[in-house]
Amino acid sequence: MATAANIRAANTNDAARLRRCMESAYAPYLKRMGRARLPPMDVDYATEIENFPCWVVDSAGDILGGLIMVFTEDQASIANIAVDPDAQGQGVGGMLMRFAESTAKEKGFTRLQLTTHALLKENLSFYTHLGWQETGTEADRVYLHKEL
């Protein structure tokens, strides 16, 4: 990364910048998907920040990436993770994934789960490279987990 970046808890003041980051990250896939929209593109990020554990990668006030997790009594999941296209290839995604794993471990979980769209082949390759395993598919969804 060209400038120092750190992961910090998101606050509602980050909502608009987080939305722009997420929309930019998902935009390249829209043509491939036709009329389908990815669910993370249609959420209210202020509400997400208020209701779920949410972090951003901040670099001098720019939001380079975001992570939203969900923790239940028996499950830790990555609900949404994305990196702005201008920051891709600079280690931001790996940094967020390691942070998610560490956070889940700190909360006592031994497995982390996520779901991605079957057409996001680049993401599937990235997750597999990081040690994630596919656990199943359903329509256009691919379910993965990683043992911690």
Write down the secondary-structure element order.
EHHEEEHEHEE
Strand content: 25-35%
CATH superfamily: Gcn5-related N-acetyltransferase (GNAT)
Q: Gyration radius, to the nearest Å? A: 15 Å
How far is it from the N-terminal to the C-terminal residue, by CA? Answer: 27 Å
What does the main sheet amount to? 7 strands, mixed
Number of helical elements: 4
Mind telling me the CATH class?
Alpha Beta
Counted up, domains total 1
CATH architecture: 3-Layer(aba) Sandwich
pLDDT < 50 stretches: none
Categorize the overall geometry: globular
Spatial order of the strands in the main sheet? 1-2-3-4-5-7-6
Could you please say which CATH topology applies here?
Answer: Aminopeptidase
Helix content: 25-40%
Q: What does this protein structure show overall?
A:
The protein is an alpha+beta fold. It is built from 4 helices and 7 strands, in the order βααβββαβαββ. The chain starts with 5 loop residues before the first strand and ends with a strand. The relative contact order is 0.16.
Relevant terms:
single chain, 148 residues, alpha+beta, Aminopeptidase, 7-stranded mixed sheet, 4 helices, globular
Concise account of the structure shown:
With 148 residues, this protein is an alpha+beta fold.
Write the layout of secondary structure elements.
Elements: E1 6-9, H1 15-33, H2 45-51, E2 54-59, E3 62-71, E4 76-83, H3 92-106, E5 111-117, H4 121-129, E6 133-138, E7 141-147
Parallel strand pairs: 4-5
Antiparallel strand pairs: 1-2, 2-3, 3-4, 5-7, 6-7
